[in-house]
Specification:
The structure is a single chain. The protein is an alpha+beta fold. It contains twelve helices and 20 strands. The chain has an eight-stranded mixed sheet with strand order 8-12-13-20-19-18-15-14, sandwiched between helices. Strands 3-4-5-7-6 form a five-stranded mixed β-barrel. A three-stranded antiparallel sheet has the order 9-11-10, with no helix packed on it. Helix 1 links the parallel strand 2 and strand 3. The two termini are 30 Å apart.
Length: 445
């Protein structure tokens, strides 16, 4: 943030601001993260919105006298002089010599967990999640969600640069977009409606308006999974684009978006990357293989017998991740042409082999983070596939307006934000990358 000049001092909000005002008297607000009282002086570590600032008190600095009632997690405004030092390793560091501390508020109780260490050592994940408003005050935990901010920001910035329009679609819908039974039902003034599984039907409708659209928003899946990779509410980063020449256009757009995101993280989120020891991948081109070829690799190279020839299980995804890294030198792998029986009703079948579809998933280090593909744009073809799937086209009259009154060739995808964050940071559980997880056991805090 920019520094703002006050009457007698400069107001700052971060450590980088402190560096820019060497020798000047400044003021900064934040939380007391840690207090270390030494013989004749004291250290106060101040936590600001993004980093921490070391402040030092000694009687010779000013007329201020140490307040023994100061406590950690008090909100304060500290005024002092920015001073440059060199540590034992020869690194240049700045600290604030305290001239005054104004207490803005004090905590009513001590924290239930220790948050002022580098990470929350020895604390179980369920406890961290139960105390999420507190545990996220730990700089490492907070950094997770700054990285997540960067992912969403990069997604928005790149697509906006590619002439996409950001949209906001309803989350209370007349039907499930993906079909099946994994939808949450609601009593809506006496009618049965559903929480959105996906913005899919609305994205397609708006392709006929804006041509290229995207949305970052929650979606809901009533799946009875209690695994490390499933949530019942998560953030989906979706886009849909019209006038495509083929589903490859969608894959190319996603490749560009991911390149932009990773470069943005490297340049503007360095502190968080270093704090989390994040391994940010280099992306040139993302390799691509067909679904059945991937199955052959799994069976022949890994000597594994799949239990389902229409989809991948988690172990198979891990194998494909290892194959992509070792054989193709990539952290990412597109798998295309999934079987028609495993794809939603709006997915276009491959004209050369209707048993398969013009669709894809993107695997990142052995975990599926994206599903996408080309959609049916012909009215008669879409109605026929609905009937084949046992659906009543009359119940989807508003959806079929797009097809009935003219739709361009189009397609799109959805990226699971929490899954991408989880795997990018090397976590084992998607809940670690979710601010306030909603799963089959958790609806609080």
């Amino acid at each position: 943030m920019n520094s703002i000049k006050g009457d007698n001092f400069i107001k700052i909000s971060s450590y980088s601001d402190l560096k820019n005002h060497d020798g000047e008297v400044i003021s900064v607000k934040g939380y007391i993260h840690r207090i270390r009282e030494m013989t004749g002086f004291s250290f106060v570590i101040l936590r600001t919105a993004r980093d921490v600032i070391q402040c030092v008190y000694a009687p010779e600095f000013s007329d201020y006298r140490w307040d023994s009632t100061l406590s950690e997690e008090s909100c304060v405004e500290i005024t002092g002089k920015s001073v440059k030092n060199v540590d034992a390793k020869g690194n240049e560091r700045f600290e604030l010599q305290i001239h005054d501390i104004k207490v803005l508020s004090r905590p009513a109780e001590n924290l239930p967990i220790v948050i002022n260490k580098k990470q929350l050592d020895g604390i179980q994940l369920n406890t961290i999640l139960d105390l999420r408003p507190i545990s996220m005050r730990n700089p490492r935990e907070r950094a997770i969600f700054k990285i997540q901010e960067g992912i969403q920001r990069g997604f928005r910035e790149f697509l906006t640069s590619q002439n996409f329009t950001e949209i906001h679609t309803p989350k209370i819908n007349f039907a499930g977009a993906e079909g099946g039974t994994n939808v949450f039902k609601l009593d809506y003034f006496g009618k049965v409606v559903y929480l959105a599984q996906s913005p899919q039907l609305y994205k397609q409708a708006l392709v006929g308006v804006f041509e290229r659209v995207f949305e970052v928003a929650p979606v809901f899946r009533a799946e009875h999974h209690d695994t490390s990779r499933h949530l019942n509410e998560y953030i989906s980063m979706d886009f849909e684009m019209g006038f495509i020449n083929g589903f490859e256009d969608i894959m190319n757009m996603e490749t560009g978006a991911l390149k932009y995101i990773m470069n943005l993280l490297k340049t503007e989120y360095k502190e968080e990357i270093e704090l989390l020891h994040a391994d940010i991948p280099e992306i040139n081109e993302i390799p691509c293989i067909k679904f059945m070829d991937a199955k052959k690799i799994i069976m022949e190279k890994f000597h594994y017998t799949p239990s389902d020839m229409k989809d991948f299980d988690p172990q198979e995804e891990e194998m494909l991740g290892k194959y992509a890294k070792k054989e193709l030198g990539s952290d990412f792998l597109f798998v295309t042409h999934y079987p028609s029986k495993k794809r939603p009703f709006y997915t276009m079948d491959d004209p050369e082999d209707p048993e398969y579809t013009l669709s894809f998933d993107l695997l990142f280090r052995g975990l599926e983070i994206t599903s996408g593909g080309q959609r049916i744009h012909d009215y008669d073809e879409q109605v026929a596939k609905m009937k084949k799937c046992g659906m009543d086209p009359e119940q989807f009259e508003t959806y079929l307006m797009l097809h009935k009154y003219g739709a361009p060739p189009h397609g799109g995808l959805g990226i699971g934000l929490e899954r991408l964050t989880m795997h990018l940071l090397g976590f084992k559980n998607v809940r670690e990358a979710t601010m306030f997880p909603r799963d089959i056991n958790r609806v609080t805090p």
